[in-house]
Design brief:
alpha+beta; five-stranded antiparallel β-sheet; about 140 residues; single chain; 4 helices; about 35% helix
């Protein structure tokens, strides 16, 4: 792991987004909450939050961080679900990986929960939107 011992402790924040594309019919089932496996959005939110908390176990050389906040929000569109994750900590290294891991796990959960309706669902992107609190703030 990279030595962050000499860095100051600051408030850190990151936001990431994942987009899951699907047919309008599948998106309607997600919106109604009647997919074969149940509440897609609620389950995806919890999966993303859990994944953020376990990022250091999943990503080699990633620092374990005491997260002060994690959330995943979902926006349902006509043919996609857009998942936006936010993570915060007070520490010596950023939370970009936690936010991206949350978004990715939430997207994978959406896929898993709707694959019985449609096999052509795709995770179109997982991107960092912004980070703040370190040496340099950054926005996409």
């Amino acid at each position: 792991m990279v030595d962050v011992g000499g860095k100051p402790v600051t408030e850190r924040r990151a936001r990431a987004r994942a987009t899951v594309r699907m047919s309008a019919e599948t998106a309607e089932a997600v919106a109604r909450g009647d997919a074969p496996k149940g509440d897609v959005i609620g389950t995806a939110r919890i999966a993303g939050i859990q994944a953020a908390k376990r990022t250091a176990e999943l990503i080699p050389l990633c620092h374990p961080l005491p997260l002060s906040f994690v959330d995943v929000e979902a926006e349902l569109r006509e043919t996609e679900v857009v998942l936006t994750a936010e993570a915060r900590t007070s520490g010596q290294t950023g939370v970009e990986m936690e936010a991206m891991t949350a978004a990715a796990a939430a997207a994978l959960t959406v896929y898993d929960m709707v694959k019985g309706l449609e096999r052509g669902v795709e995770i179109a992107e997982v991107v960092l939107l912004e980070k703040s609190g370190g040496r340099h703030d950054w926005r996409r």
